[in-house]
Amino acid sequence: MTTDRPFPWEALLDRLSELYRAGDWRRPYLGDHAEDPFQVLIGTILSQRTRDEATDLASARLFARYPDARRLARAPTRTLATLIRPVGFYRTKSRTVRRCAEELLARYGGEVPRTYEALVALPGVGPKTANCVLVFGYGIPAIPVDTHVHRIANRLGVVRTETPEETEAALRRTVDPRYWIPLNPLLVQHGQNLCRPRRPRCDACPIAGLCATGRALRRGRPPPRPADGPPGRSGAPRGRPASRPGPRRQTPSRPRTSAPRRSPRTRRRPAPLRRAGSR
Ligand code: SF4
Which residues contact 28 (CB under 8 A, 6 or more apart)? Predict the structure, then answer.
């Protein structure tokens, strides 16, 4: 279910892009792996139910030895499990990524397909992973919805949904395709830094004026309820005015002291965000 009022997506994306352009912010895993469809595909499978730091470490170890489908398809699963051990469910994922590489080799000559339908037919690939490959691997407009995008879209008040799948469908109906490509990386980064699952930093948020939750908290009112659920579901923060910061809050200007280590492969700057239609 969506609200009827138009939403200023361009202003929101511009403000987030400006905020995260510089500074020692946490960065989305995929922001450093853009434009390599195979690594986006396998890295996103590894990232399921796993912290970004663990995904980064495991994928760097994996791709250092098996950088393409041809080599990964022939790798011993026991070796794969050892390499990707930092991620959750590493034994299952070691079998999944190998089967995925075998399918790529058998059906596409080792290339990653470019259509949603072909991608979701691969082992271990669901809607989010398929959409990530389209956006980050190929620059094709799509809306990958993970927990960050689902939570923030509900907090903004642009959707009222219970599941990421509902959120994706609602966003596809309401967001102009010009904004689909930058939407995920910016909202994910916002979810990692300010609009966190618990204690969002509404007081420091540059899009608070565009956000139903931010506006409500600034007025000392409880945030709007997500659809069909009590406050707190879909990540809606409970009603604490922005003027009352919670304990152990991190100021956005303070450098992180525990920034995730990046492998040499991931230290390169990511490709600039591309808006739909720019390639
Ligand atoms: S105002 Fe608060 S809830 Fe809204 S996007 Fe910003 S941090 Fe998230």
Answer: 52, 185, 188, 189, 192
